[in-house]
Write a structure and sequence with these properties.
two-stranded antiparallel ribbon
């Protein structure tokens, strides 16, 4: 970077999706299958691990609470993951889901 002449390298990616375009498993393990639109968009297979975090708005929540809130309709869902191994780092839905 800068004077050293290095290049920037992205280490994380993100998908803007919806709760109806993913299938959230009963427990945060295995693989999440997600896409950004109903037809014609690529499918992403992303792994849960012990460091995956769940948010409603800016509030971190346990997975059970996240999953319950996500089931309340077709909500915006932001999915963040590591490029190197397709591991989920963060799932976030809007704060309105908790109401």
């Amino acid at each position: 970077l800068g004077q050293q002449g290095g290049t920037l390298k992205a280490v994380t990616g993100a998908l803007e999706s919806g709760t109806r375009l993913v299938s959230l498993p009963g427990i945060p393990s295995g693989t999440l299958v997600a896409k950004e639109c109903a037809t014609g968009c690529p499918v992403f297979r992303l792994r849960f691990d012990s460091t995956t975090r769940f948010y409603i708005g800016k509030q971190p929540v346990p997975y059970a609470k996240f999953r319950e809130a996500a089931s309340k309709g077709d909500l915006y869902l932001l999915i963040s993951y590591r490029y190197s191994d397709n591991t989920l780092t963060r799932l976030r839905i809007p704060a309105v889901a908790s109401k």
